[in-house]
Amino acid sequence: MKCIGYMPPAPRRRPERAPQYESAAYRSLMDRFTANLRREREARGWTQADAAERCDMVMQQYQRTEAGGTNLTFTTLARVVEGFGLDVGALFVPAAPLQKRPPGRPRKDDDVIVVADQGWFVAAQERPPEDRPVGELIDPELMPPKKPRRK
């Protein structure tokens, strides 16, 4: 088996500390931090990979941090604050809960359909009715000229 990457296991928490991680104060702080961090990243138009690079982290570490899957250290907090250029207090202000995203990859745009026609990709601005092929919706003037076939 070929190893293409290494993802360290999720942090193991000591059983005697479980009540601390389940406390209302801890959950409130983590919920505020994760919601504000994701909002700041999305407001800048950054991907998680962009944010990880700016925060001097590997992407998996950043993903766990943004998801609240790891206990924050001052080192991690300092990296995030420096990477985003924020005051630390901005990450802990009360925030509305984030909406849960549907599983899977997000679509770029539901209103645009990309079809392949003779090796070219063309975007149609509306979904075709069931009885019309997609090609009829594409403006012919947007199509590149057809190349003659070689014999």
- CATH architecture level-2 label of the largest domain: Orthogonal Bundle
If you consult CATH, what is the topology of the largest domain?
434 Repressor (Amino-terminal Domain)
Rg (C-alpha, Å) = 23 Å
* Estimated share of beta-strand residues: 5-15%
Helix content: 25-40%
**How far is the first residue's CA from the last residue's CA?**
47 Å
Task: Say which CATH homologous superfamily of the largest domain is assigned.
Answer: lambda repressor-like DNA-binding domains
Order of helices and strands: HHHHHEE
Would you write up a description of this structure?
With 151 residues, this protein is mainly alpha-helical. It folds into 2 domains: 16-91, 434 Repressor (Amino-terminal Domain); 113-142, no CATH class. The protein has 5 helices and 2 strands; from the N terminus they run αααααββ. The protein has a two-stranded antiparallel ribbon. A hairpin with a 2-residue loop joins strand 1 (113-117) and strand 2 (120-124). Helix 3 (48-54) crosses helix 5. It is elongated. It starts with 17 loop residues before the first helix and ends in a 27-residue tail after the last strand. 8% of the residues are buried.
